Amino acid sequence: MRICQLPEVMTTTMMTANMRSVLCLCATILGATAAAGRAEVSFKPHVEVYHSVLRIEESNEASQIEFMNRTGDVSYYSDNSGAVIQSLGGRLGLSARFGARLSATFTYDNHIWHVFQGRDMPVYDNTEKIAGGVHEGYLKVALGPMPAAPVVLRLGYFNMRYAPEVMNLGEYLFRTGVYPGYVLSGGEGIELLGAHVQTTIVPHLTQDLLFTSEINIFPAYDYSLSYLARVDILNIAEIGAGAMLYRVVSVREENTYNALSYVGDGADTTRIPLSGNKLMGRLVIDPKPLFNPGRMGPEDLKLYCEAALLGTKDYPEMYEDIRERVPVMAGVHVPMFNLLDVLAVEVEWYGTPHGCNPENSATAVPLVQEQFRYGDRDDWKWAVTATREIVDGFEVTARAARDHLRMEDGNGWYQPRELMKLPGDWYWSVRSSIRF
């Protein structure tokens, strides 16, 4: 349920950057059209309308949520276990194909919601919010022998998923930071701005190379270089691995190497950058080809796991134990024999002693009050997600979870502080959508 996991829209500066990328994309499309000459051109519109409702049954962190009230001042909730948020929105997009090798996609997302509704919500703060922004806008070029081109290039603003079996937890290479090592959750992948090359030249081996700009977390616009590879073994198992040079190119070095990001005194002072290296490994097993699966659906009985290292370098005082920088998740698609498309049960362990929040990402030193606040009581996360396409184009997704839930703040951004910390914290959500 994307509205509660990741930012739906950008700030003004980021929207400006997005619009620049879209304008560049449009210029590229026009140039490609001219170059295509007599190539066949086709257009395909696509529309999605969705409604979602989310209820927090228990949260020890709900009192930390900020919201902008009607007067423009920042307020806080006091006790919001049982609070509800709803969203109604839609996506309007257009895909264009210029011959066999060149295509382009543009999608705009807009939704309406009210600020977080809880027991202590003043009537005069029951304000309606509207948020919108570019969801995708990219150019795709197929290179090599057709029809199955072995190399595909994407340029622009696109949604990236490398583990489609994951329903909520995992995909750590793009959903995490380093120093501090925060983790995001959500089922739609992550939106990236930059370039993506995928190749299947080697049989049964898929490789991805990405050079992308950071647009969601401060400091903005730093560039990261990522490489992923996955090997298919007889359609029974898939082994994947990846590495990222996170913020390898700093747009403003004084932000990436913040002056406040240091520990120690005098000659022993160590500055900790917001950049670093990430490593990831994953495994997927689908045993159905080994026996007659009968009425099992294509997703039934898949087992998968993933682990990542968020920062390969140790730093004194704050990041001395490498085990505290390793999130691990595992999941299974419970056999439902076509009663549901997917019923996924996922668990995660992440033993960091620091707050799993990017809100202090202006410095690599975690908030003092967040250190060791919960001990190991916040190490475990879980999520149960069910999806079913009722009729063609109409899908319902339900979830119960204690994950890295974060809420929108009503200002075109989102609350960095995750709300599900202790074992008793959990929420449920239902999202329905219809696509044309």
List keywords for this structure.
436 residues, mainly beta, Porin, 16-stranded antiparallel beta barrel, two-stranded antiparallel ribbon, 20 strands, 7% helix, 43% strand
Please provide a written account of the structure.
With 436 residues, this protein is mostly beta strands. The chain has a single domain (2-435), classed as Porin (Beta Barrel), CATH 2.40.160. Helix content is 7%, strand content 43%. It contains 2 helices and 20 strands. The strands form 3 sheets. Strands 1-4-5-6-7-8-9-10-11-14-15-16-17-18-19-20 form a 16-stranded antiparallel barrel. A two-stranded antiparallel ribbon has the order 2-3. Strands 12-13 form a two-stranded antiparallel sheet. The chain is globular and about 65 Å long. It starts with 11 loop residues before the first helix and ends with a strand. The relative contact order is 0.16.
What layout of secondary structure does this protein have?
Elements: H1 12-36, E1 41-58, E2 66-68, E3 74-76, E4 84-98, E5 102-114, E6 128-143, E7 151-160, E8 190-199, E9 205-213, E10 223-233, E11 237-249, H2 253-256, E12 262-263, E13 270-271, E14 276-285, E15 303-310, E16 328-333, E17 342-349, E18 380-391, E19 394-402, E20 426-435
Antiparallel strand pairs: 1-4, 1-20, 2-3, 4-5, 5-6, 6-7, 7-8, 8-9, 9-10, 10-11, 11-14, 12-13, 14-15, 15-16, 16-17, 17-18, 18-19, 19-20
What's the short story on this structure?
By secondary structure, the chain is mainly β. The protein has two helices and 20 strands. It has one domain (2-435): Beta Barrel (Porin), CATH 2.40.160.10.
